[in-house]
Amino acid sequence: QVQPVESGGGMVQTGGSLRLSCAPSGRTFSGYATGWFRQAPGKERGFVASITSSGGSINYAESVKGRFTISRDNAKNTMYLQMSSLKPEDTAIYYCALASRYYRHTPAYTRGGVYDYWGQGTQVTVSS
User: What's the maximum distance between 2 C-alpha atoms anywhere in the chain?
Assistant: First the structure.
């Protein structure tokens, strides 16, 4: 069993930055594609960013392109989401997820249904 564990959430002002980390317990995550999703109050959980196991293919939601950067360090068994130019609408619980299945068409990783393991989430609050 793999349990992703998120960290790095908090409160920041508009325009600020935060870096989220995700480190799975119980197993190395080098063979998994990984993704970040978020859920704001009263809204459904939505895709933020994904990265394949090799790091060779990355996808972003349109709303975060140019502001967020996803990366992974397989040697450290950790994935990151660097968030910059944060806006109040970025306020949400952010979830890390792992997908064991390989998809050649990498936009498949924008769908929550392809992920096998989910973290408990970390709160990000952006104040205006």
Answer: 40
Amino acid letter, residue 121: G
Please, what's the b/e burial string for 67-85 (b: 16 or more CB within 10 A of its CB; e: otherwise)? Answer: ebbbebeeeeebbbbebee
The pairing of strands 10-13 and 122-127 is parallel
Q: Averaged in consecutive runs of 10 residues, what is the pLDDT profile of the chain (128 residues)?
A: 92 98 86 96 96 93 98 93 98 97 92 96 97
The sheet with strand 3-7 has its strands ordered as 3-7, 18-25, 78-83, 68-73
Comparing CA positions, the residue from 55, 53, 60 lying closest to residue 28 is 53
What pLDDT shows up at residue 26? 76
For residue 121, which of 99, 82, 92, 100 has the smallest C-alpha distance?
92
